[in-house]
Write a structure and sequence with these properties.
alpha+beta, 11 helices, seven-stranded antiparallel beta sheet, about 15% helix, binds calcium ion, binds beta-L-fucopyranose, Immunoglobulin-like, 4 domains, Jelly Rolls, eight-stranded parallel β-barrel, TIM Barrel
Length: about 700
């Protein structure tokens, strides 16, 4: 009897305690209010436009004439609206890139828009962007490159003051900014007021970032500062738009001293993509990736814009991993986003809307194994479906492995699962799994090893189920999950894959069956009238192939595009260097193999170094291509080259010379158009400077004759 009443009292006490139970204690470091705002933004566009647009460069040298800036139709409204149609919530405008040219009438340098014909020298594009953003309800951020290849004082203390002055102008005159974007590229050769020399700076000390960022905090307290390693937002470490499948918003930079990169630069790749579990700071990753191959508009890259489904995939791999997506868009010569790019953005926006229009969990019955203190009103599972990122299902402090059973009432078909944690309480969960009921047995269909602000799991196939179960498998503390959803992507036809054999035979294939594939080789969009594909066809000279699958005339897939150069059969590498890997690897048509003259086996360790190819027959070369190694390492990647041709292998003529700008961060195939086609049997690529190391590496080298 006594025992029973003690138990009753105890139960009562626990009950009271439980109902009065405080919210879960936050775990680890937490996001600031400004970072919370950034997480909610999820995706924005970065806009590259300036003199490079007219010189066809990715990195201007600094001596470009402001006269070049004379767009016929510049429209900030059209540009920002193109981003908005894509579902993006803000833009980061490059106000000054590495070439030092300022798109606003700055007092700090004469190398600015007032010296251009644009609006007869009275223009201010940043103002136009600000007004466009206001009108369209978009957030505005600004990018002002610390590296300045125009400024005579770059490398000296005086420049740091100029740079800070530029930031002050930008912070004072263009309204509230949501981001202050600071690029990591630093020092190198440039015009520098006519000095035309190489200037190196010590990036750990030169810019005095602490003092610079104090200005940001004072003048734009809500602006998130983006830098390679923070302080508010870190670089994910690649320009592919992908965060790690495990992504921690917390981060302990290996080199907190202003982002000193290790020699090969690419340790950052892994550091940035994953972050640090239980890291010292909250510094989530931004995934930046250009919509086109380069950041600036290049006519030669028309037709190579990423497709809506490609973008959707990037969305899953960035936003879907708790990072943000920063997509590069590039106004063209007219000063607008081309209609092709605009249309792709719009289609991507629609796709996203369609995919996430209906949470199929709506109306489902959710049964949790535990609710914090039994307080379902506050911590119950209804919080998972209210669309609020901060109301949440929580468990008792000692319950770290709860389960949630879901009865959808009727069977539903889906392929995307979404989870969010209330990040105001930190990033807590380390492992979850989702099961579905198959004839009374649980079968695991998905899992994740981090959640954070957002986690999307895209299944490779649609699944249909009535009952699901979420299992939390690992968490150091009780959970605080704020949202849960299942969604179904709209049906789409399989896009053709385009491959070519070493002998030049092109094959088009699809993952899933389609009624027909049509293709073109003249750069136009395939229609039902274009040639139909039924067997491999020869394309030894190369060219652009576009292919599209059709179900009916009205129902078709996205367009797949691929450019091929001349086939390499009969080619011989004549290089004399004894590098690692045979020299044939640079012309074997395999992206993953490369020739290297670096490393211990190398006999030659000094630059410049040549790579010579005998094509066997004479060809009319229009362009050459260089694919850097694709293994995420930077050693031997050429960033300054010369390209020579010869008819006899003895007498050489230089056909092109220059810089592979931004190749370290964005190691894609480089295509260099020659100023005029040249006839030659031999060609020679000379690496004059490399990103790191002392030799050169080449994954593929090729020529375009079409
Ligand atoms: C890079 C820059 O060097 C590129 O030119 C581009 O601006 C990109 C967004 O950041 O590091
Ligand atoms: Ca909620």
């Amino acid at each position: 009897m006594i025992r029973k009443s003690i138990i009753t009292v105890l139960l009562l006490v626990t009950h009271v305690l439980a109902f009065g139970q405080a919210a879960p204690k936050p775990y680890g470091v937490l996001p600031s209010a400004r970072q919370i705002g950034w997480h909610e933004t999820e995706m924005y566009c970065i806009i590259h436009y300036g003199l490079d647009t007219y010189t066809d460069k990715e990195w201007g040298y600094g001596n470009e004439s402001p006269e070049l800036l004379n767009p016929s139709k510049f429209s900030a409204l059209q540009i920002v609206n193109a981003a908005k149609k894509g579902g993006f919530k803000g833009v980061v405008v490059v106000a000054k890139h590495h070439d030092g040219f300022c798109l606003w009438p700055t007092k700090t340098t004469s190398h600015n828009i007032s010296k251009s014909p644009y609006r007869k020298g009275k223009g201010d594009m940043i103002k136009e962007y600000e007004l466009a953003c206001k009108k369209l309800g978009m957030k505005l951020g600004l990018y002002c490159s610390p590296w300045d290849r125009n400024n005579a004082t770059y490398g000296k203390p005086a420049y740091v003051d100029i740079y800070r002055q530029q930031l002050k102008e930008l912070y004072a005159n263009y309204g509230q900014l949501f981001m202050s974007w600071h690029d990591g590229a630093n020092g190198g050769d440039g015009y520098y007021g006519g000095a035309n020399e190489t200037r190196k700076i010590d990036r750990t000390t030169y810019y005095g970032w602490d003092s610079t960022w104090a200005i940001t905090r004072k003048m734009q307290p809500l602006a998130n500062i983006f830098g390679d390693v923070g302080p508010d937002v870190r670089w994910v470490g690649n320009e592919e738009g992908r965060a790690g499948t495990t992504h921690w918003a917390t981060y302990t930079p290996q080199a907190p001293d202003e982002g000193k990169l290790p020699a090969n630069g690419y340790v950052k790749y892994w550091e940035g993509v994953e972050g640090t579990r239980n890291g010292k700071y909250w510094i989530p990753a931004e995934c930046d990736v250009p919509l086109r191959p380069g950041w600036f508009y290049h006519k030669a890259q028309d037709g190579q814009t990423k497709s809506p489904y490609y973008l959707l995939n990037l969305y899953y791999e960035s936003v879907g991993r708790g990072a943000n997506l920063d997509l590069g868009i590039s106004p063209n010569h007219d000063g607008v986003i081309s209609s092709e790019d605009e249309q792709i953005l719009e289609e991507f926006g629609k796709l996203l809307k369609q995919t996430f229009a209906i949470n199929l969990l709506k109306g489902a019955k959710l049964t949790a194994s535990n609710v914090r203190g039994g307080n379902t009103a506050k911590y119950g599972t209804q919080n998972l479906l209210d669309g609020n990122r901060y109301t949440y299902w929580a468990t008792n402090d000692n319950v770290t492995k709860p389960t949630l059973e879901i009865d959808l009432q009727t069977a539903k078909t889906f392929n995307v699962i979404q989870l969010r944690e209330n990040i105001k309480l930190g990033q807590r969960i380390e492992k979850v799994a989702l099961d579905m009921d198959v004839n009374g047995e649980w079968k695991e269909i998905a899992g994740a090893t981090s959640i954070g602000a957002n986690r999307l799991i895209r299944l490779s196939k649609n699944v249909t189920a009535r009952k699901l179960r979420l299992r939390i498998l690992q968490s150091p503390v009780c959970i605080a999950i704020s949202e849960l959803g299942i969604y179904k992507e709209p049906v789409h036809l399989s896009v053709p894959m385009i491959t070519r054999s070493g002998k030049g035979l092109v094959t088009l294939s699809t993952e899933a069956p389609v009624s027909s594939i049509h293709y073109t080789v003249d750069g136009t969009a395939p229609t039902p009238q274009s040639p139909v594909y039924d067997e491999p066809f020869a394309l030894p000279d190369g060219g652009v192939i576009k292919a599209r699958s059709f179900e009916t005339k009205q129902q078709y897939s996205e367009i797949a595009t691929r450019q091929f150069g001349l086939i390499k059969t009969g080619w011989k590498a004549l290089t004399s260097s004894t590098g690692t890997g045979t020299s044939q690897k640079a012309i074997d048509d395999h992206e993953d193999t490369f020739w290297s003259s670096t490393g211990p086996a190398s006999a030659v360790t000094n630059l410049p170094q040549d790579f010579v190819v005998d094509m066997g027959t004479s060809q009319l070369i229009k362009a050459f291509t260089y694919l850097p190694r694709q293994d995420k390492k930077a050693d031997g990647i050429i960033d300054n080259y010369s390209y020579a041709v010869s008819t006899d292998g003895v007498n050489w003529k230089v056909a092109a010379e220059g810089e592979f700008a931004n190749i370290k961060s964005n190691p894609i195939e480089q295509t260099v158009q020659l100023s005029a086609p040249v006839s030659a049997r031999y060609f020679k690529l000379t690496g004059k400077h490399v990103v790191s190391g002392s030799g050169i590496t080449i994954a593929e080298i090729g020529v375009n004759i079409k």
